[in-house]
Amino acid sequence: xxxxxxxxxxxxxxxxxxxxxxxxTYTPRxxxxxxxxxxxxxxxxxxxxxxxxxxxRKEGDLFVLKFRDTAILILDKxxxxxxxxxxxxxxxxxxxxxxxxxxxxxxxxxxxxxxSLKNEKPEVIKLDRPSAGANDSKVTAGLQELSLSTVLxxxxxxxxxxxxKVYPVKRQNEAERIQGKFLFNSSDKKTLVFATxxxxxxxxxxxxxxxxxxxxxxxLNPETVASNVQQxxxxxxxxxxxxxxxxxxxxxxxxxxxxxx
Length: 261
Prior knowledge:
This protein is mainly beta. It is 11% helix and 36% strand. The chain has helices spanning 2-19, 136-139, 225-232, and strands at residues 23-26, 48-54, 62-67, 70-74, 85-90, 97-102, 112-118, 121-127, 143-147, 150-153, 157-160, 166-168, 181-185, 191-195, 199-204, 210-214, 233-237, 243-247. The chain has a four-stranded mixed sheet, with no helix packed on it. The protein has a four-stranded antiparallel sheet with strand order 5-6-7-8, with no helix packed on it. The chain has a four-stranded antiparallel sheet with strand order 9-10-11-12, with no helix packed on it. A hairpin with a 3-residue loop joins β10 and β11. It is elongated.
């Protein structure tokens, strides 16, 4: 009789374990200066997994992120617990780091995080800098693809999707994210150009060099600003080898290929 009771107890326990969801919750930390996310796993198969759990939604497909068989949850108080994500992207070919945006229904302003394996354990890094900009709601554009391997996050971070590097973009005013619309890169893809209310703010995200170029109001017409700049300005290399816009000479031949969108 005791044997039968023990067997039944063991069966119920094992069934409960199978039914229990495997998940771990992580508290995000801040990004360190110069940090990269390109760790190689010590054991074959130790990598992050992106698993689709729902599709066809108006906001986009939903995913969970797993390490081995355990789902990764993010608790960044006072924000709610995050367990679903939009369009996760791996940051390296060995899949030991991923960029995720929380699926919380907030649209473009939903927070971004990096999940990375360090010493065979996941950790979470927040991509968020406080901002008090008057036009934050207009310039917070979420993720913008600059190329197949480079994305811009909320005018604040450049993330490379091959070698797992993250570059905080130097702000025009440290108290607020860049209050302008991203237009294009320089031909070497290192200088970003933003159209602000009264200027073209340019920043080399590798060196941190910046140039704030005042331009006529007509140039900044939202409907034509990109073509206006391409027709009337060109990139010129400075003494440090960085490319920044300057006004064309009257005889300057326009080369549209200088501008990379």
